[in-house]
Amino acid sequence: MDYSILTIPPPLAALQRRLAGLTLYAVGGAVRDALLGRGDGSGDDDIAGPHTPDEVVAACERGGVEIAAKTPKLGTLILRMELDGAQHSFEYTAFRIESYDKGHRPDNVTFTRSMALDAARRDFTVNALYMDLSTGKVSDPTGMGLEDLALKRLRAVSKSTMLDDGLRILRLVRFACELGFTIEPETYRLAKAHAHKLSEIAPERINAELSRILLSDLAERPQRFSTPPHVRGLLALKDLGALGVIEPALANLPVCRGELCSPAITTNVGRWPAGEHSSPLQCGIDGQGILAVRMAALLARVGPERADAALLNLRYPNAVRQTVNAILEARSNRDTPRFILAELGRKRARLFVALMYELGDDRTGAFAAALYEMERLGAPFSAGELAIGGGDICAALGIAPSPRVGEIMRGLWRRCVLEPGLNEKDKLLEILGQL
């Protein structure tokens, strides 16, 4: 692979032309992914250069580029311009030297003209690669980034990488999962030594990285390891001592057969039970649904109440919390499979079966078969799916709207759950005539 020259994406080339006189570079994930053949270098739209914010603002005024936002202390500008009728945004950051006290944001920033000093503040060598927007030439100021990229290896730029910013520990694991990279041993040791720094990071940022780790098997293409990426990620987080810092409810998850389990997450995490379908995505389970299933599996052993508290602490949205709570509570419901699934509703029923499968529950086969039959026969998953409504019941029985109408609707619904063929208006009205 030729690492020396990349094709400059048209929006970045146009920006460089408008800001003639400045030396600008694409940097970070976009350059890394372009070299890996995963993009064209425009993915993150992060650019950098040796120019101060004031110098860039002056060039933008001359070149007709809008300044959409400024963070002068950090040397960051949001640039916006139109090209071929489309709006493009770029985040410019001046080359800088950083120092940290606590948290994710640097406390002190000093601007510099040196690419090498700017590279020294970045997280991993493969993210410290710079593409010149005039020539497409790639620079590797750490001297290790291109080699590490070729070897699919993550290496910290410096020994202070994890100490400066604890979030980089999660980013390290996430990149390893999404990219299918290994972690250089000294970098792994540094991450383990500084896992406590995660306590300084805002829950929202932890949430974002943890969620991407849990869904990393949807990103890694092709997968290089026999163990799914997200399972490798969870194992790494446990071994690093990061899970308990992230959320105490996750601290003592057991390991069995070389895999993280709660109590028995297997390499089938998120897959649909064997049978009619092979993947949750093929069964209408989207990424958000898979995330809910995996969070539920991680937290299954602590129970619905503590699981909900953990999700609240991690700032997960109400929709995820409610879904996790519903499918965890359904595990203790001893009704028949059809009624348990029907009570959950169509979407959550699928997530529940996926959770049962993921946890190795002995009842998985019965629930999977029940769900398949319910969907095949068109069973109603709520009273709202009945062929008649409350008005029809009132008219047929000559009664006024009342709680009794709701009770009758529920009775009809439960009957149709068992016998989906009854869910036709004439048949339901005939049943009402027998009451």
Can you offer a commentary on this structure?
- This protein is of the alpha+beta class and 435 residues long.
- The chain folds into four domains: 1-148, Beta Polymerase, domain 2; 152-246, Hydrophobic Seed Protein (Orthogonal Bundle), CATH 1.10.110.30; 253-377; 383-433, no CATH class.
- It contains 20 helices and 13 strands.
- The chain has helices at 10-18, 29-35, 53-63, 115-120, 145-150, 161-164, 167-179, 185-193, 203-214, 229-240, 243-246, 287-299, 303-313, 318-329, 337-344, 346-358, 364-377, 390-397, 403-418, 425-433, and strands spanning 25-27, 46-49, 66-71, 76-83, 86-94, 96-99, 108-111, 130-132, 138-139, 153-154, 182-183, 255-256, 259-260.
- It has a seven-stranded mixed beta sheet with strand order 3-4-5-2-1-8-9. A two-stranded antiparallel sheet has the order 6-7.
- Strand 12 and strand 13 (259-260) form a beta hairpin.
- Helix 7 (167-179) packs parallel to helix 9, helix 13 runs antiparallel to helix 14 and helix 16 packs antiparallel against helix 17 (364-377).
- It starts with 9 loop residues before the first helix and ends with a helix.
- Mean pLDDT is 87; it is low at 255-282.
State the gist of this model.
This protein is of the alpha+beta class and 435 residues long. It has helices at 10-18, 29-35, 53-63, 115-120, 145-150, 161-164, 167-179, 185-193, 203-214, 229-240, 243-246, 287-299, 303-313, 318-329, 337-344, 346-358, 364-377, 390-397, 403-418, 425-433; strands at 25-27, 46-49, 66-71, 76-83, 86-94, 96-99, 108-111, 130-132, 138-139, 153-154, 182-183, 255-256, 259-260.
